[in-house]
Amino acid sequence: MPIVTAVALAFAALVVTVVCVWLVQLRTRNAGMIDPVWAASLGAVAVFAAAVGPGAALNRTAVALGGGAWGLRLGVHLWKRNYGGPEDPRYAALRERWGAAAPRNMLAFFVLQAVVSIVLSIAFFVPAWQTQTPSIPAIVVALGIGFAAIAGEGSADRQLRRYLADPANRGHVCTSGWWRYTRHPNYFFESLHWCAYTVWSIGMPYGWATLVPPCAMAFMLLKLSGVPLLEARLVHTRAGYRDYMATTSAFFPWPPRGRLERHEHAHAAHENRQERSKSS
């Protein structure tokens, strides 16, 4: 199948999918269900590209397993988080801001997500249409990045879920595990996942195009729909979040600095004094 035809079919299917979700949210008034459907449908595009692409079996297998596993894990996680609950505050804020124009604007927003998906799917279509396979070092590095990204994002999601499950932590900031080193470890690992396809495609015709997905994902998460919208709410709903922003990297994992470190030293010193007073 020509790649143009495959991309057109994938985009048409994505648009139909998001329109169906939009119709459902007209009744439920919960636009948050677009998130798990978006992840799962993009994973399905990876499987589709691998199935119809004329490239080497190794390339198509890597695309199907990498993209499919990513979409399945993220889709299931988001479904469990969103299904049956209140609308995600980000979408609720948009709905309130848009007022009477919310149905029309929400449809445009959903279709935009289909456009984003097809841009990201460059990572799938390029290798799936190449008969050239990567070198052994490129395979090892790409697989390492892919496994690390999926495992890291899953780990960060579990850490946050366990933290929020404790009623004592309600309204506070999770600073344990990956969340100690970056305010958004899930966003970091999400962007890292798309780098695996770039490494896999090094030296292939049009391999340079696979730089677009990781750059586009990082830009959207850091500048558009991710960090700005989320942190605009968290500074008002999480005690100490402004201090957390001042001491913790927004994206790349990095040791905390400044006040958080002093707070931890003071806390440790306080515990030591308590232990000494008990022993005496």
TrEMBL record:
<dbReference type="InterPro" id="IPR010721">
    <property type="entry name" value="UstE-like"/>
</dbReference>
<feature type="transmembrane region" description="Helical">
    <location>
        <begin position="36"/>
        <end position="56"/>
    </location>
</feature>
<dbReference type="GO" id="GO:0016020">
    <property type="term" value="C:membrane"/>
</dbReference>
<protein>
    <submittedName>
        <fullName>DUF1295 domain-containing protein</fullName>
    </submittedName>
</protein>
<feature type="transmembrane region" description="Helical">
    <location>
        <begin position="107"/>
        <end position="129"/>
    </location>
</feature>
<keyword id="KW-0812">Transmembrane</keyword>
<feature type="transmembrane region" description="Helical">
    <location>
        <begin position="135"/>
        <end position="152"/>
    </location>
</feature>
<feature type="transmembrane region" description="Helical">
    <location>
        <begin position="6"/>
        <end position="24"/>
    </location>
</feature>
<keyword id="KW-0472">Membrane</keyword>
<keyword id="KW-1133">Transmembrane helix</keyword>
<dbReference type="Pfam" id="PF06966">
    <property type="entry name" value="DUF1295"/>
</dbReference>
